[in-house]
Recover the amino acids of this structure.
């Protein structure tokens, strides 16, 4: 796969990007929640575990990687490059305070997907130069998942999208009632946590969000 083909593959994958959060598990397991989201049409999955012991996370990640692969949906790991290597994840998403994208690329190789969180044009350009394949930009709306995340303006999202040649996914507080507010920004898709995993019917929530995301990127 050449660079142009990889970029287009990543762009398509960002359309509906589901990020797990154990606080929304309830009576279901993460595995069951992920399966429901895959049935609902998510296009990319990020396994995000901040507190789980390494060995437990490793076992869970291997099971979910196999599940996602059966749907031909790439699975990313949040922050943990070593675990991503251990389970042969499709990539890693890192924040500004985590390992720099260039260092991640050295460990993962050229074929894996690297995503980087960014809030400004400067951060976005720096991440692109370091080898990021996509940017997660936000928070575009207020979010309970990261209460310390300041909301960025729609214009900032658009400026970042225009400043870089790699695709951008909008992150933070996105739900079905605000997706269309992102229309015209240039974002390639939406990254959703509670709007998926906090819903009583995950599959239906994903089907609705996918339809909205497709409409949003056409505007």
């Amino acid at each position: 796969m050449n660079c142009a083909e990889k970029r287009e593959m990543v762009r398509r994958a960002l359309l509906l990007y589901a990020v797990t959060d154990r606080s929304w598990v309830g009576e279901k397991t993460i595995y069951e929640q992920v399966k429901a989201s895959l049935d609902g049409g998510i296009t990319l999955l990020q396994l995000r575990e901040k507190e789980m012991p390494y060995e437990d996370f490793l076992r869970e990640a291997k099971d979910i990687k196999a599940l996602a692969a059966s749907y031909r949906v790439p699975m990313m790991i949040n922050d943990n490059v070593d675990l991503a290597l251990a389970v042969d994840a499709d990539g890693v998403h890192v924040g500004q305070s985590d390992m720099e994208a260039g260092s991640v690329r050295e460990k993962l190789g050229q074929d894996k997907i690297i995503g980087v969180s960014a809030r400004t044009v400067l951060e976005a350009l720096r991440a692109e130069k370091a080898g990021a394949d996509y940017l997660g930009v936000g928070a575009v709306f207020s979010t309970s998942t990261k209460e310390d995340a300041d909301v960025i303006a729609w214009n900032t999202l658009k400026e970042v999208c225009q400043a870089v040649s790699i695709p951008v996914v909008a992150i933070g507080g996105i739900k079905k009632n605000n997706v269309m507010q992102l229309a015209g920004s240039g974002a390639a898709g939406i990254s959703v946590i509670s709007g998926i995993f906090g819903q009583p019917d995950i599959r239906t929530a994903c089907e609705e969000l996918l339809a909205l995301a497709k409409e949003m990127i056409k505007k």
Summary: The first helix runs from residue 3 to 13. The chain has a mean pLDDT of 94.
